[in-house]
Predict the structure.
Amino acid sequence: MTRTKSQKNRIKLNNILTAVIFAVFIFAFLVASLVIQDRDFSDMENRNLASFPKFSQEAVMEGDFTKGFETYVQDQFPARDRLMSMQTGLQRAVGKKDNGMVYFGEDGYLFSIEKLDMKQLQKNVGYINRIAEKMPQGVLCQLLVVPTASNILKDKLPSYAVTPDEDAALDQVRLDTKLAYKDLRDTMKQFATKEIYYRTDHHWTTLGAMYAYDAWRGDEKRIRDFQVTEVSDQFYGTNYSKAALSGIEPDHIYRYDNPVDPDVHTMDIYEANGILSKQFAGVYDDSYLQVKDKYSYFLSGNNPVTIIRGSSSPEVAGKRILVVKDSFAHCFIPFMLEDYEEIIAVDLRYYRADLTKMAEENGITEVLFLYNILNLAQDKNLIFAAK
């Protein structure tokens, strides 16, 4: 079909306008970049932001510079957080129940949209079995896998939400593991009407961790008169960062102290090279209450090796546990203080440990592998500890 002169002129004008708008956009970004200093870290997304890529002829030829520049523009775009929030708000306004990263659930719950790698999960359970087999004789090895909020609070998900078959994954873990195993699903469902998961974060709450701890210990009916303290009423977690949605109510963070156990516990944190980096009286780091990543108040966040001196009660003398874990263990471990003389927590993402040697040198009597099911299904570090 032959275009008329008028149509050709209209197309040409549209192309010119598009080019002008794009040029203005680039110019505005460059001006803003000169005025506004680049950010190293996003509190909203709780991650490091890209810096301007290093320019070289080789980087340009291989396309690395272009990729780096695209990431830089995305991360350093002026008012990025506000624009993300506006975009999510518009999606909610037209009735959307997700933004591609999180589902907008009932009662203010935000659920991360995740995938579950069954092949990697089976490999990792095999690696854990292998690690357990190498432990000194007499050491009790246990596995505790935490279900997600999406699995336990299904009634709060949008009706069309597509989630991984987590039940099938947990059933497979139960079949494949050679370790002592406690399935937490029944316990968490029993207390699902309580605030056992954060609304804006993917972790369980301290209350959820307490119920899980008692179930793991086989003492679900234990009644303890904890001193419960609210340490923050302004916690916006990882799912909030993905949602970037204004008007969401913050979560509250609580700590549970056992007044019957007055011991002053100590916590030493070591770098991967074995150098002592931080020391605490207790298992909490108040400095994190002043920043967005408030969940790191527990155990001072993710660290290679954390050693905690627990109870000095004669009843637990000599009981030492090695916890191989992800961050779900952070508000779980404080409940161990009354039951163990010493707790050593290892995060294999930051420390390539010889776990057998560590157990032998520290007189470990128990080993607990504690992972959220999604983390267990994507971890690529267990293989190194299994060698």
User: Anything to note?
Assistant: The radius of gyration is 25 Å. The longest strand covers residues 227-235.
